[in-house]
Amino acid sequence: MSDDPWLVVVDHQRVFAEEASDWGSPMFADTVPVVAALAREHGERVVLTRWVPHEPADRAGSWVDYFERWPFADRPADDPMFDLVDSARTLAAPHVLTRPTFGKWGPELQAITGPAPTLTLVGVSTDCCVISTALPAADAGARVRVVAAGCAGSTPEAHEQALAIMRLYAPQIEVV
């Protein structure tokens, strides 16, 4: 694999984009043009990710508690709420990775990017799925660049807090 960076667009889905959703980010719309520009720069090296719920039979431990706390999200994985937003679909990214975990780094993403890639991360939410992707990727040896303007937090304050935490991991994680 080359050292050319991969763009990983974390969870640009309706559940995080729509204001009426319990998880809708007030910052989401601002990320759309940033993500589109970065996708053009990265060409074929773009991965879109999607979060979907664990199947009820596969839930254990804290995931049981999680769905008790967020019952609105306890839907089938193919529910339209979990669809990519239109702006993400128009990116025509060659890779779409769907996982029932906050973090998207794992064997599936590693199979696409290689074992120690350079990743450019954008997406939602900064304080959940983005940070949960950045930390294990860096721990596995990936070089991670988080584009702050391409990320949306659950709130502006949570966004800034997550960026501050990720800055602590320099030089493995760089926030730009």
Structure characterization notes:
The protein starts with 5 loop residues before the first strand and ends with a strand. The protein has one domain: Isochorismatase-like (Rossmann fold), CATH 3.40.50. Helix 6 packs parallel to helix 7. It has seven helices and six strands; from the N terminus they run βααβααβαβαβαβ. Helix 7 links the parallel strand 5 and strand 6. The chain is α/β, with parallel strands linked by helices.
Structure summarized in a few sentences:
Helices cover 36% and strands 20% of the residues. The chain has 176 residues and is of the alpha/beta class.
Record the SSE blueprint.
Layout: E1 6-10, H1 14-17, H2 28-42, E2 46-51, H3 62-69, H4 86-89, E3 95-99, H5 107-113, E4 118-124, H6 126-139, E5 143-152, H7 156-167, E6 173-175
Parallel strand pairs: 1-2, 1-4, 2-3, 4-5, 5-6
Overall pLDDT, averaged?
96
Q: What would you call the structural class?
A: alpha/beta
| Strands, total number | 6
| Major pleated sheet | 6 strands, parallel
Q: What is the fold named in CATH at topology level? A: Rossmann fold
Helices, by number, come to: 7
CATH architecture: 3-Layer(aba) Sandwich
Strand order, main sheet: write it out: 3-2-1-4-5-6
Overall domain count: 1
Distance between the termini: 24 Å
> What's the helix-strand series?
EHHEHHEHEHEHE
Helical content (DSSP H or I, runs of 4+): 25-40%
CATH superfamily: Isochorismatase-like
Q: Identify the CATH class.
A: Alpha Beta
